[in-house]
Amino acid sequence: MKAHQLWQLGAKDMKAVPLPRARTSRKKHVCILIAAFVSVATLWTYLYPPQHYTSPMRDWLPAEPVRELTDQERASQVVFKQILSTPPVKSRRSKIAFMFLTPGTLPFERLWEKFFEGHEGRYTIYVHASREKPEHSSPLFIGRDIHSEKVVWGKISMVDAERRLLANALEDIDNQHFVLLSDSCVPLHNFDYMYDYLIGTNISFIDSFYDPGPHGNFRYSKNMLPEVKESDFRKGSQWFSVKRQHALMIIADNLYYTKFKLYCKPGMEDGRNCYADEHYLPTLFHMMDPNGIANWSVTHVDWSEGKWHPKAYRANDVTYELLKNITSIDMSYHITSDSKKVVTQKPCLWNGVKRPCYLFARKFYPESINNLMNLFSNYTLF
Ligand SMILES: *[C@@H]1O[C@H](CO)[C@@H](O)[C@H](O)[C@H]1NC(C)=O
Ligand SMILES: *[C@@H]1O[C@H](CO)[C@@H](O)[C@H](O)[C@H]1NC(C)=O
Ligand SMILES: *[C@@H]1O[C@H](CO)[C@@H](O)[C@H](O)[C@H]1NC(C)=O
Ligand SMILES: *[C@@H]1O[C@H](CO)[C@@H](O)[C@H](O)[C@H]1NC(C)=O
């Protein structure tokens, strides 16, 4: 019997197959030899660890199949690793970048103005209006439009707009955290609460979970191999909030971005629809810095009606009770889209402490502005 066959036999197999004495003793010898070899090898690795052993990369690179990285992968990983291990520039005054992704005029500017009031120098506003030039009702938004391009729902142009916003916002070295918001988003807390929540932690709030169902991994294409394996494919809400290092990673990435641009789009050859804005960042960060993201988004959206679009609140829906309900949620919730509908609920942990998950919420109809304005100082007390 060859050594590798012996290796494959578990203890149970050995008991079940009685072997002649002579062979058993020969086997003993082989076992001792193997054991000796293993201990020498272990000692050797301990004394002479391979070069990469102490590198932090070990913590986030998937361990499994040892594959020769492509030149592009190696280059990406070295850049990401460097970005992640470089402490953020200590700026005199940390600011939060509010990046609005909207087709045109923002209906809640006056509400946001109330939110920003008295906090000058701690925030910066950027507006990407993809369809028409917005009319601003608040002076805080005037002159904050960035160069914009057309955005088609579900297509890579959505991700392009997000990257455009990040690139503009990164130009300001004081911006330490970057929040993506839509025209239908509203704040759930007062400015100080939100500021301390985002600046006071080292993680990014990127939603990311494994969904084996039709709205998850069914959208994966093998054309993404070898860089993106199906087991790494993730799903999550588009509405992220990221720290500076992660914002840099997003605009520095070309390799994974291109994979999603080419192979995650609506109406693919095999009849599948993939939406890059729901998969690209959840997958990228799951692969590159899984412990650096919260796995939930700080922007609440209600999918509980199970429709193609989330629940949108009318003026009548907007009550103190509704807002209090949303702000008191402290568990993140995911459900798979397969027939099993597996629900995962996890406490929202902020620096290890359970806290409310959400700072912003969508989708609100423009007509709800007056209710929101009236309730604002009341519901944002907590
Ligand atoms: C963030 O990371 C830095 C460096 O790793 C660490 O010194 C600091 O305590 C962390 N802050 C929080 C709030 O975890
Ligand atoms: C997010 O999920 C990944 C698994 O995909 C896990 O490794 C990581 O620890 C999670 N992040 C946090 C902050 O719990
Ligand atoms: C608030 O939450 C309670 C308890 O979950 C629920 O019964 C109630 O209908 C909610 N109210 C609104 C306005 O969502
Ligand atoms: C906030 O609104 C609730 C519900 O309308 C009311 O009961 C409460 O007294 C209000 N609080 C303040 C401080 O106005």
UniProtKB/TrEMBL annotation:
The keyword Transferase applies. One of its GO terms (molecular function) is glycosyltransferase activity. GO terms for cellular component: membrane. It is found in: Membrane. The gene is LOC102717240. It comes from Oryza brachyantha. The keyword Transmembrane applies. It is a single-pass type II membrane protein. It comes from the Eukaryota. The chain crosses the membrane at residues 30-48. InterPro entries: BC10-like, Glyco_trans_14. This is Uncharacterized protein. Pfam families: Branch. Keywords: Glycoprotein, Glycosyltransferase, Membrane, Transferase, Transmembrane, Transmembrane helix.
